[in-house]
Amino acid sequence: MSNLIAPSILAADFANLQKDIEMVNNSEADWFHIDIMDGVFVPNISFGMPVLKAINKHATKTIDVHLMIVNPDQYIQTFSDLGADILTVHYEACTHLHRTIQAIKAAGMKAGVALNPHTPIAVLEDIIADLDLVCIMSVNPGFGGQSFIENTYKKVSQLRHLIEFTESSCQIEIDGGVTNKNANKLIEAGANVLVAGSYVFGAENPTETIADLKNIIA
Ligand code: DX5
Ligand code: ZN
Questions:
Q1: Cα 106 from Cα 44, distance rounded (Å)
Q2: Which atom in ligand 1 lies closest to the alpha carbon of residue 9?
Q3: Contact 85, 117 (CB under 8 A)
Q4: How far lies 49's CA from each of 61, 81, 103, 109, in Å?
Q5: How many angstroms separate the alpha carbon of residue 176 from the centre of ligand 2?
Q6: Which CATH number belongs to the domain containing residue 93 in this structure?
Q7: How does pLDDT run along the chain (218 residues), one tens digit per residue?
Q8: In a mutational test of the pocket of ligand 1, which residue from 40, 195, 209, 213 has the highest number of ligand atoms less than 8 Å from its CB?
Q9: How far is residue 92 from each of residues 21, 22, 148, measured CA to CA in Å?
Q10: How far are the Cα atoms of 39, 67, 81, 83, 89 from residue 70, in angstroms, in the given order?
Q11: Which UniProt keywords apply (predicted)?
């Protein structure tokens, strides 16, 4: 499985979105990470469908949508229509997670589950075989630019063991506070997709920063 970088558009310049999308298109980045927040599941509102539609018009790489919303089931078809390739819902927001995962796949997308920092890996034991991706939150969801929670490494290796034990082909994504300081250790612990928002878009040269991260995790 190759190691991937997914810049988070939450940290892009919304007044120059097309410029930042083209930067990602022309960089060594692998995916676009799109954070959808509803102000209910998380204490922040990011952007919604019209913005994703505009992003999809220009983006030439995989669109990885991270839903931080309650009742994600009611929007599954909408996100598929908007061009999401991967749709990730929060474990904490889904009462009938198995049903939600099947609905995401039936709508033609890859299915992911995100875990908040306090949610143990063990809750995934009976769903792991159905998942294409697990997103381990390494910050509390809701905002970019927060510091990385060190307990994440332990969770990554626990998840890697679970994936190996069940022979699942699930990818492990890390979201929050990713920089050149923790990228290598995360890959060594077993992760293979790193989301990076403020570290990439806050850099003087985002294209080079993406290339550096790719180099670190190669
Ligand atoms: C946080 C979002 C993240 C965020 C990461 O709730 O899910 O994707 O954009 O931003 P950084 O890399 O700045 O922590
Ligand atoms: Zn995210």
A1: 30
A2: 9
A3: no
A4: 18, 10, 19, 17
A5: 7
A6: 3.20.20.70
A7: 799 999 999 999 999 999 999 999 999 999 999 999 999 999 999 999 999 999 999 999 999 999 999 999 999 999 999 999 999 999 999 999 999 999 999 999 999 999 999 999 999 999 999 999 999 999 999 999 999 999 999 999 999 999 999 999 999 999 999 999 999 999 999 999 999 999 999 999 999 999 999 999 99
A8: 195
A9: 30, 34, 20
A10: 9, 9, 20, 21, 9
A11: Carbohydrate metabolism, Cobalt, Isomerase, Manganese, Metal-binding, Zinc
Domain count, the chain: 1
CA atoms in the 13 A half-sphere facing the CB of 133: 27
Kindly report, residue by residue over 38-47, the tens digit of the pLDDT: 999 999 999 9
The residue segments making up the domain with residue 187 are 4-217
The runs of H, that is alpha helices, within the chain are 17-25, 49-58, 76-81, 97-106, 152-166, 183-189, 198-201, 206-217
Q: Hey, what amino acid is at 110? A: K
56 CB neighbour count, 10 Å cutoff? 17
Looking up tokens 């890697």, which residue turns up?
160
**Ligand 1 atom with least separation from CA of 140:** 6
Contact indicator for 163, 125 with CB cutoff of 8 Å = no
Cα–ligand 2 centroid distance for 84 (angstroms): 14
